[in-house]
Amino acid sequence: MRILARQVRLETRLFLRRKDDLFWTLAFPLFFIVLFGLIYGDIVWDFFELRAIEYILPGIIVMALMTSGIMATTSGFAEERERGIYRRLSLTPLKRHTLLGGQLIQRYAVILVQTTLLLIVGSLAFSIQISGNLFWVWLVVTLGALCFLSIAFLLAGLIKSARAANGISMIVFFMLMFLGGVFFPNEMMPEFLRAFSNALPSTNLNDVLRAVMIMDRGIGEMWRELLFVGGWFVVSLLLAIRLFRWE
Predict the structure, then answer these.
(1) Which residues contact 114 (CB under 8 A, 6 or more apart)?
(2) Cβ distance 72 to 170 under 8 Å?
(3) Annotated domain spans of the chain
């Protein structure tokens, strides 16, 4: 446990040195909620019987999870490996699962801060009512964070250079965002895209978070979507551990 705690502290120091990560993980999602809140105001989407900003807020939280979980983690991991940080760590007693565990805990802490800020801004600035159980909201956010972080570690194991990691992680991020129902329902998509969208973890996580947080539905009603996201998490994590490279 002490080795894991030291690794978490190391990962936190490395994260705080990357000012671009601080912007993308904290300021970028807040910019989106303020922007959409000002655009839509009190406009109601009759199809969902929700204010537009209430529909979009869970999607912005999922976008924030992907920003930290996929974009920042994949590029940061690849950059540190390219600089030889992990090669030097491989000469110590540090195990690969401890390194990945330290990354998971540090990134998860950032994601909790992200989510809390978004909920506060949404509630105070745009009067969004969080009608669901906050414990279930936390549980869904935690599962989503683990899922996207595992996908990031898998990508980092497949990608060889930091430059390639930036481009590939952005492609994956935007695909999951625009095809995952973050800003508009996937019912608006053509039929051939809708089937692909329903297979994405972002789509299922969006549906669960919106149902639990805004529509006050029980988490048991969304067990299929949760199982789907959990499957992405388990498979991605197992592959990430298998494909992990120190250099």
Answers:
(1) 25, 26, 29, 61, 64, 65, 67, 68
(2) no
(3) 2-243
Per-residue model confidence as pLDDT tens for the chain (247 residues): 677 787 788 777 877 777 777 787 888 888 988 988 888 878 888 777 788 888 889 999 999 999 888 888 888 778 878 877 777 766 677 777 777 778 788 888 888 999 999 999 998 988 888 888 889 999 999 999 999 999 998 998 888 787 888 889 899 999 999 888 787 777 778 888 888 888 899 999 999 999 999 888 888 888 899 999 999 999 998 998 888 776 6
pTM score, whole prediction: 0.89
